[in-house]
Design a protein that fits this description.
Helix content: 55-70%
Number of helices: 6
Amino acid sequence: MAKIRELESMGLPGVWLAVVREIGYDRFMAMWRILDRSVQLRSESESMIEVQLRRLSSFNRFQRNRFIETLVASGFGDREIREMVQAQLGEKLSLSHISRLAGRRKVTAA
């Protein structure tokens, strides 16, 4: 596509070209406009946009912990939670890890 080649020839880094190919040119340009309007993301010289984004694993861990919180609130025990986490999320967690996460949620919910 000519529009992507244009971004390539201007020197857009490969990771951003991969994003363009994944989400499409128009969506990428919409995202770029939003990021460009954010004064907080501008470099000191204002010639660059400096994006910081947490790793996807951080979001996945957050989601897993919300899942565990829901199971605790529903009255499931640590062993049942461990089995459900493994079956539904494919993660093997120790009982002590489940217990720590469940204990933290019980205190927060009270």
